[in-house]
Amino acid sequence: MVLKEFLDWSTHKISYLQKNGLTATLTIGEDCPNQSARLDIESEHYMARITIWESGDCHCEIIDLMNEKTVFDKMINVDLIHQESFESTFDDFFKVLL
């Protein structure tokens, strides 16, 4: 359930990111009991990824391409949240990225 909601949210978010000059790709992992998906985002200065598993576990990371340092690294659990809440869940992530 969490994964499907993330996929729906990501599809809309990709359009927004691309309109703002970023490259974004959504990849769905192999079908398994704790399936995952990842949203990879690239800009001129950053490479970022949100990985989420059906369990609700989520890892968010942003790397500064100029100095190759991680500027955001956070594990969270988004179990049972709804699509509307993804914006607030990832707010800190996108504040750094954008």
Give a description of the structure.
The chain is α+β, with helices and mostly antiparallel strands and 98 residues long. The protein has one domain. The protein is 33% helix and 39% strand. The chain has a five-stranded antiparallel beta sheet, covered by helices on one side. A hairpin with a 7-residue loop joins strand 1 and strand 2. It is globular and about 40 Å long. The protein starts with a helix and ends with a helix. The mean pLDDT is 92.
Structure, briefly:
By secondary structure, the chain is α+β, with helices and mostly antiparallel strands.
Q: What is the tally of helical segments?
A: 3
> What structural category do the secondary elements indicate?
alpha+beta
Largest beta sheet: what is the strand line-up?
Answer: 1-2-3-4-5
The beta-strand count equals 5
Radius of gyration: 13 Å
> Separation of termini?
28 Å
In total, how many domains does the architecture comprise?
Answer: 1
The H-and-E topology, N to C, reads as HEEEEEHH
Helix content: 25-40%
Net shape: globular
Strand share of the residues?
35-45%
Integer average pLDDT:
92
> Which regions contain 5 or more consecutive residues with pLDDT less than 50?
none
Largest sheet descriptor: 5 strands, antiparallel
Show the helix and strand layout:
Elements: H1 2-19, E1 23-28, E2 36-42, E3 46-53, E4 57-64, E5 69-77, H2 83-89, H3 91-97
Antiparallel strand pairs: 1-2, 2-3, 3-4, 4-5
